[in-house]
Amino acid sequence: VFAGGKKGVKKTGSRTGSVASGSGAVASPNAIRAKKAGHLVFGDPIRYQNISLVPVGTTAKGPFTKYTLLEKGLAAKTFAVRELNGKSGDAQVPAVEVRNKGKAPVYLLGGEMILGGKQDRIISADTVIDPGGKWTKVNVFCVEQGRWRGQNMKFSAGKALAHVGLQRAAMSGSQGSVWKEVARKNIKHGNQSSTSTYRRTIQDAKLRRKISPYRKTIASRLPKGMSLAGMVFAINGKIRVVDLFGNPELYASLQEKLLSSYILEALGQKVVRNAPVISKGAASNYLQKARRTKKNKFKGSGRSDNYRMEDAQVIGNETYDKKTGKKVRETYIMK
Length: 335
Known about the structure:
Elements: E1 40-42, E2 46-48, E3 51-58, E4 68-69, H1 70-76, E5 79-82, E6 95-100, E7 106-108, E8 112-116, E9 121-123, E10 127-129, E11 136-142, E12 155-161, H2 164-171, H3 175-188, H4 199-202, H5 205-221, E13 228-235, E14 238-245, H6 248-266, H7 280-291, E15 295-298, E16 304-310, E17 314-321, E18 326-334
Helix pairs in contact: 2-3, 5-6
């Protein structure tokens, strides 16, 4: 249910549920290109339960860089994750090592969960790992406070992306904030455990069954005529996150995982029936405002350049692939 990939996001003509006027499966001729938005095109808003979102397309043309994703690399055994030096005694909470023996670079999404080692972790920020078979240190956050043991230093894919609140906590750079948000979400969904692991929430069967109809309905209404690059997502009319990719092919492969993350944030919050639907104009204006936030470069891993931006209202991250010089992803989350 949480796994990335194109499965589960097939484009159909379903019309179940509530949709804002003018939305549907076909790209609207009224989709707007915002000033200063460059190649971005904002589509008609979609509404379902307490969620409204504006799909964002791109007019950018390829060829686009081909990336291998975490699950695919681990399944093919061309990608591996371990504790530092593969030794229990060398393990550190805020770091793991990865190795890419495949032909394509591996793209790790900030907030993706990895299971195993001495404790479960999430990737701290978007990271691009070159091929070549060299072990590379990657920064992570612990999402399992009560365990620090394990003989097998390898990790498996969590097949999930942290919900928006946990991503925001990770962007703050505080391990304490991450643990606090994990505990809050586990309690909210009744998934406390002896090790306080986040996997109890993301692997909860009942929770997955709740997420599935949300994701399927929203995915069926995304416009077919746009080269989608991301979306602006709101809960009860309040914008919570903007997620945009410079590479629409990469976005397509991650769309299911991203949608599940957004929906997990919305679950448990009441449905305000008269809440406004965010407009294309509001989505564009929010993006432009967020982009004006001062950027500060911080040390990334692999061949990634990462920039963090933060003010009283928003925290965000931009990731560039140093080899191509192109922006891979930009994410802005409301505080």
